Amino acid sequence: MKNKRVFLFHEGNASMRELLGGKGADLAEMTKAGLPVPYGFTITTASCRDYYTHLGHIPLTLIDEIRTALRSLEQTSNKRFGDPVSPLLLAVRSGAVTSMPGMMDTILNLGLTDETVEGLALTTGDRRFALECYARFIQMYGHVAMDIENNAFSKVLQQVNRESEAEHIGQLSEEKLEELISKYKQLILHRAKKSIPQNVEDQLIDAVRAVFRSWSNPRAKVYRKVHKIPEDQGTAVSVQEMIFGNRDETSGTGVLFTRNPSTGGNEMLGEYLPAAQGEEVVSGTRTPFGITYLKQTMPSVYEQLHEAASSLEELYGDIQDIEFTIEKGQLYILQTRNARRTAQAAMKAAVDYAEEGIITKEEALIRIEPEHLNQLLHQSIKIREEDEIIASGLPASPGAVSGQLVFDAETAESWASLGKRVILVRRETTPQDIHGVIAAEGLLTLRGGMTSHAAVVARGMGTPCVCGCEELELREDTKELICSDQIFREGDLISIDGGTGKVYAGEIELREPEISEELTRMLGWADEVKRMKVFANSDHPHDVRLARKWGAEGIGLCRTEHMFLSPSRLPLVQRVIVAGSNQERQEALQRLLPVQQSDFAEIFAEMDGLPVTIRLLDPPLHEFLPKLEVLEGRREHLEMITLDGDTDELEKVDRVMEKVKELKESNPMLGQRGARLGIVFPEIYDMQIEAIFRAALQCIHQGIKVLPEIMIPLIGHASELSFLRKLVDQVAEQVLREERIHCPYRVGTMIEVPRAALTASQIAEHADFFSFGTNDLTQMTLGYSRDDAERKFLNHYVEQKILPANPFEVLDQDGVGELIRIGLEQGRSLKPELAAGICGEHAGERDSIFFFHNVGLDYISCSPYRVPFARIAAAQAQIQASNITKSSHGENPISTTA
Question: Is 568 a residue whose pLDDT tops 70?
């Protein structure tokens, strides 16, 4: 069993997902549940990994196991693989551990040869049908196993269809199918310099090899990178008896969602094509009927499908994406998987399942993908009378977007890299378009339905998408989109609304998102479960209002230098920095004081009763100093217009230029900023501290509860914090003593220098709280300048697996994380109740949030828009930690693999 590489369906189960892949494990579960699954077997993911280890070689031991499994399949079907009279035909499909819809390859009708096609014609009594299957097989095999581009076959088929006035292969006559087969064979011989094997075992081994090979095709690699799927998973291969949806009019194929994958509504949503094979629905090459067509034409089969869907939904406790085929009135379930659905659908379904008692609240929380919450907070169209609707299609993936028209994936990727917002328009997308789909802001297809490749991939990525817009005409040769009498060319602006299926001319006005009822419910459950508090990084009153809207429990970081970046305020800060004397600096600071006080008062009022952490000025000087070239230009201008003896303004510019040159730093990020600025120029911090406490007094008089927390930035030595802590306490006492009002406050520091983490027990003596600033801590620990690293080498490092991820996006737990652990342990060794949190970019990334929970931080602070994400992730971290604890005590933890 240890070295077993091939498992019959009844030999597997859901716990073997890592070995059998998602599809193989699900086929095993459905077989065990007694559902009508075509019999077959799965070749393991380990075999795929061996294939790459052995440079594309498939060992004889694996071939022997495949032969043994085939014998079992032959006995069950009463057919023989390669038999000229009663041939067994196979469907060979990929199946990774993590679902990758359309990214890898499939071959149907495998086992057909010049001889067995006549056997199929004999046993079915329908030679036209047998020839159609053979043509389909040759096309798929030639493309997948022999690397001939699909477009070459499509052109041949289009030519034959035109000659026959047929819309698709199912309408071709027996004679035309023979002609098509002949042309396909000629194409393969010309391109590959060899023919398709007439030995069926060779076909099967080649097909297995091709599916393994497709794990490394470009589109699969791109998809894995976007969805952070490990490269070493590999794919399994599922081999099933072929079921023919193209057999006759009582046959067909379709895809069914047990609930609406766009909204989560409790309604079956699906599509069905009579007399067709599955790839035609999934690829979007034909626009199918709605599932109600099946209900009207074959009501008893529809009822069987409905019962199977209900059973599968109850079995998995999630929305299922089911592929099915009907052959001569007999229903078969080919596969099921957890559906690619929008965040709204995932949220609503999870809430509904929990309230229906199918899953627990904790299970509902654990299955939400926090990184998709930005989908839920998507913009929608603000409907106006003047907006012109040019077409309507299917609302395949919600969200509204305006962008420039592009007609191919390469242009989409190229234009997006230049910062352009593009909408990719295709007749139908194929997996080869994945790089363009990723780059595009929106997706519009003329064909295909809600279950097509475009719809499924767009929903998974949160990209607005409209499918099946058949009233539009696409002229790819001239790059034009035709709607009635209007012509839209590449680069023209259009807009799409993936929530309604509407397409608009030009740019449209968008409406900001609102929190849905389901998200509100889920966030409430998250708040009941999570241990860590979730604060927000907000620098302006309007940001604070937004933070409260999304449920922030405090402000974890208010960066005061960001308050001065507006054109009206920047000159005030520049005067402070370049002041030629202490008096000149004090005059500039007195002008800044009321501005700061007003901002702080507004923030305190918005956060009534909640903590507000204000970081004192931490400006890298190069961001705030006047530009030398601008000053030089100003000086030249003044020289030209200055009258004799009137040189005051000229001298002033000269003084500023000298000051700028004096303050210029070789490495501003490690220069005179943060605590260093406050120690050299204490009057700057004095003004800020005074503004904070005057704002606090102002709010207290208004009945507002104020909880100010003052953060000293860039501390590397305990003596720095000791010096500045005294300054805070002195100014606070002076301001509060004037009115004899008590205002509790805390003073802490941002741990962002490695030395601060390593000497945290000394620093904690002067601190009431620690806030780990992982942005700078990552830069200083790794020795990377973030801007330079991301522009120069980080992407290459990640692609070459030198680093597992960008350390500015995902916390470097072994390095930076270890410093956080050391700093926290040291700080709490002196002060066990020392409050500690995180306020870097990593506070909005799930794996990092799990680390912060496990290490024992009290809070995380992220951007206002990431607060809902962080609340869910913090709850998931608590659930995961509880599950680990329960497992270690022998209890049954909540499943986290649903």
Answer: no
Phi and psi dihedrals of 359, rounded to 5?
-135, 170
Catalytic residue, from 839, 842, 853, 862: name it: 839
Q: How confident is the model at residue 740 (pLDDT cuts 50, 70, 90)?
A: confident
Distance CA 75, CA 68 (A): 11
Examine the pLDDT at 147 and tell me if it is beyond 50.
yes
Task: Identify whether the C-beta of residue 327 lies closer than 8 Å to the C-beta of residue 254.
Answer: no
How much is the average pLDDT of 830-847?
Answer: 92
How far is Cα 242 from Cα 247, in angstroms, rounded to an integer?
Answer: 11
Which among 143, 378, 453, 766 is annotated as catalytic?
Answer: 453
Model confidence over 799-816: pLDDT tens digits? Answer: 888 999 889 889 999 999
CB distance 463 to 469 below 8 Å: no
Q: List Cα–Cα distances, 330 to 292, 297, 327, in angstroms.
A: 18, 14, 5
Band (pLDDT 50/70/90 cuts) for residue 898 is: very low
DSSP 8-state class, residue 795: H
Active site residue 558: no
Specify the 3-state DSSP secondary structure of 744. Answer: coil
Does residue 723 contact residue 674 with C-beta atoms inside 8 Å?
Answer: no
Which DSSP state fits 740? T
Confidence of residue 580 (pLDDT cuts 50, 70, 90): confident
Which amino acid makes up residue 286? R
Q: Which pLDDT belongs to residue 642?
A: 62
Strand, helix or coil for residue 32 = helix
Q: Is 55 exposed, middle or buried (0-12, 13-18, 19+ CB in 10 A)?
A: exposed
- Distance of CA 329 to CAs 91, 250, 593, 639, 836, Å? 20, 5, 81, 93, 65
Q: Residue 193, Cβ neighbours under 10 Å: how many?
A: 8
CA distance between the termini of the chain? 26
Distance CA 514, CA 511 (A): 9
Residues with Cβ within 8 Å of residue 507, at least 6 apart in sequence: 402, 493, 495
Question: What is the distance of C-alpha 205 from the center of its chain?
Answer: 35
Nearest to 79 by CA among 106, 107, 108, 111: 111
R_g of the chain computed on alpha carbons: 33
- Could you tell me if residue 509 is left (phi over 0), alpha (psi between -120 and 50 degrees) or otherwise beta? beta
Cα dihedral 616, 620, 623, 626 in deg (nearest 10)? 90
What's the average model confidence in pLDDT over 233-247?
93
Q: Maximum CA pair distance of the chain?
A: 111
Q: What is the pTM of this model?
A: 0.72
Length of the chain: 898
Name residues whose C-beta falls within 8 Å of residue 833's C-beta, 6 or more positions apart in sequence: none
Task: Flag whether pLDDT at 654 surpasses 90.
Answer: no
Is 743 labeled as catalytic in the residue annotation? no
Average pLDDT, integer, range 134-152: 94
Separation CA 294–CA 304 (nearest Å)? 11
